[in-house]
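Students often ask why we bother encoding 3D structure as a string. The short answer is that it lets us treat folding as translation between two languages. Here is a chain of 188 residues written in the first language.
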Amino acid sequence: MILSPMRFGDYIWPHNPRIYEIEYKRRIVCHKVPFGLYALSDMGRDQRVLRGEGEFVGENAYDEFKKLAKMFYSDKPNILVHPIWQSAPAWFVGLRLKQEPRKDYVSYEFEFWECFEGYELSVQPVLPSPSIEKDEGVAQRRTYTIKKGDTLWGLARANGISLAELLALNPQIRNPNIYYCGDVIYLS
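And here it is in the second language, the structure alphabet:
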């Protein structure tokens, strides 16, 4: 199987890293209850973490590493495109040389953290106010325009439907993790 090259912002790996791992975590808190009982609370998922290692080989290996290192100094997240992980905005949080670099060989490790930049500092309404399409002779369909901070799961829950039902109403959404502010979705 031929995989597409990994990319971060404007940087494209000349060949994919040799090893990578993707970590998914959920934060669960245990609350102690008198007489030895407990209750668990789901505090939501943590960011996904992509770690890996690779080598640059050839007469320009060290120059290639310097191009990658330049991306580390970016002061904002960029889109990370990985051959098997869905594209996501991410911070480049770690880059490490594994040995003294040579002009023709560099071994390195890297780490990216998926980010969520959708938080608003101002107060937002809890329940969205959907609009209703009006067309004579056609059943009315409720629509909603996605705003910063919205999640499909949250919109489905707020409108009394499951995420599966929301996705069935919106076949244009191919990946439920990728949607944009301004997208219009159907709620009924």
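Translate back mentally: The two ends are 40 Å apart (CA to CA). Keep this in mind for the problem set.
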